[in-house]
Design goal:
By secondary structure, the protein is α/β, with parallel strands linked by helices. Helix content is 23%, strand content 33%. Strands 1, 2, 3, 4, 5, 6, 7, 8, 9, 10 and 11 form an 11-stranded mixed β-sheet that branches. It has a 6-stranded antiparallel β-sheet with strand order 18-19-20-27-22-25, with no helix packed on it. A 4-stranded mixed β-sheet has the order 12-14-16-17.
Length: 474
């Protein structure tokens, strides 16, 4: 049976701010065990029997971050398809893109397994057994969804009512009393947001129930830009056409309208890591009910969670708090208000704050940069370039740059000159000069950059050549 896992990686994970940002969302946050959710999802998908291809639907700016996570898992012999959305248009459009792609390369009888990138499922054997059961239903022409057996009344999840393996209905997030009745009945499951179906069946259902979304998505897909390598296909979906697609969830557009869908009951641990309280449960509590990550000292503190970063965090004489410290933002929140953190994120985004988009350390295809300090007319960065990494050939209209190499080797294009610099050597890039930074060595390159100018925004870049296909910095 030809099962094609479709990993869907979208959204900002706003309830996990300030660690989750738009350019570094929830699937990429390291968990207490050091691994990320997207890495765990990929490993779980590639371990399924007979999988030959992985399809990933994600934002264009997350392609190389995703590929780096997959490379850590190290599965060889697999084909990869990356479908790159220019903006989010909810799950119906994302699944339609995947179905069009899989139908074109694997045929309409191929079975797609849709997996959100931000779920935690420790029991991979039980997961594999559930997928096998779902695939049987999918092969018979049914759309299968996965119902997660609830272990508590939960108001933060949608529910599925089922009679055996027959899906009866979807229910929106209930109030607490209704959730209690759902759990007691034994007929209700949490909606896990995972699906299994023949791609031809799903395309036909979309054509019946949401034809406009399908036709608009098809137009964007047909206008996409395709690049191929030996084991990877990347499709950049056309921005103008995709902007016309109505954002709508697959539950609302298709699943709630079906009369013959299957529900696969799943009795294993599952979490969508939807809040800081869920993250805290991954760590061991001390005798006072406190859970900590990082360099943390507590005195007279109870029932609190603290996530430290690069400095000491101390709490004294408090209880029931959630504290998350990062280089550029500090969150202090009552634990029972964890679901409201998204309102802070939404406020920051509405006001154009970079704290909603980026960390002080930003990830790029070639490596990372960290803003160390900035003020009027200057910014200081620490830049790290991976072995073989190569920044774009670029210029700036509003700033000059001073580069000092502190580790590794730098190959520098500066105007019409190319030089190689080692530790304690430097160069000056005048405003308007075409330049490029490369790491030709097998060790990392670490450099300090000092920018000076009347505008220091990340969008002050004109690219002349870029091997990563970027038109401008986001």
């Amino acid at each position: 049976m030809n099962i094609v896992p479709v990993i869907m990686s979208g959204g900002a994970g706003s309830r996990l701010w300030p660690l989750s940002r738009e350019a570094f969302p929830k699937p990429f946050i390291p968990l207490p065990d050091g691994e990320t959710l997207i890495r765990k999802t990929y490993a779980r998908a590639t371990a399924l029997p007979g999988v030959r291809r992985i399809v990933t639907v994600t934002n264009r700016e997350l392609l190389f971050l995703t590929a780096d996570e997959y490379e850590i898992v190290g599965q060889s012999g697999l084909a990869h398809s990356f479908i790159l959305e220019p903006m989010g248009r909810d799950t119906t459009a994302a699944i339609a893109l995947a179905c069009l792609h899989v139908a074109g390369i694997e045929g309409e009888d191929a079975i797609a397994l849709v997996l959100p990138a931000d779920h935690l499922i420790p029991d991979t054997q039980a997961f594999s057994a559930a997928v096998s059961a779902a695939a049987v239903s999918a092969a018979a022409g049914r759309v299968a969804t996965f119902g997660m057996k609830p272990d508590r009344p939960e108001t933060g999840f949608g529910y599925i009512e089922a009679d055996g393996t027959d899906l009866i209905r979807f229910v929106e997030k209930p109030d607490l009393e209704t959730a209690r009745k759902f759990v007691e009945s034994g007929r209700f499951f949490w909606n896990g947001g995972m699906f299994c179906f023949r791609v031809g069946v799903m395309l036909a259902l979309m054509d019946e129930h949401c034809p406009d979304v399908l036709s608009q998505t098809r137009a964007a897909y047909d206008a996409s830009r395709v690049s191929e390598s030996e084991d990877r296909v990347s499709m950049e979906i056309d921005r103008d056409e995709f902007a016309k697609v109505e954002p709508v969830s697959i539950d609302y557009a298709v699943m709630e309208k079906l009369h013959d869908a299957a529900c696969i009951p799943c009795d294993f641990a599952w979490s969508d890591i939807g809040s800081w309280n869920a993250i805290s449960e991954l760590t061991q509590a001390d005798g006072e009910g406190n859970r900590v990550i990082g360099d943390v000292v507590l005195k007279g503190t109870k029932d609190s969670f603290v996530h430290g970063a690069d400095r000491l965090v101390s709490l004294v004489g408090v209880s029931g708090l959630l504290v998350v410290d990062t280089l550029d933002a500090l969150l202090v929140c009552a634990k029972d208000a964890a679901q409201d953190i998204k309102e802070i994120y939404n406020h920051l985004k509405a006001n154009g704050s970079e704290a909603a988009l980026l960390h002080r350390t930003a990830h790029r295809p070639w490596g990372t940069y960290t803003v160390l300090e900035e003020g009027e007319r200057f910014k200081i960065k620490r830049i790290e370039v991976k072995p073989g990494g190569r920044l774009s050939l670029q210029s700036h209209r509003h700033r000059s740059e001073h580069w000092v190499v502190v580790g590794g080797q730098a190959r520098v294009t500066n105007g019409d000159k190319i030089t190689v610099l080692g530790p304690n050597q430097s160069t000056y890039i005048p405003c308007g000069n075409m330049h490029r930074l490369e790491n030709p060595a097998g060790e990392r390159l670490v450099m300090i950059e000092v920018q000076c100018g009347n505008y220091l925004g990340e969008d002050d870049i004109e690219r002349f050549d870029d091997e990563y296909g970027r038109s401008q910095v986001k």
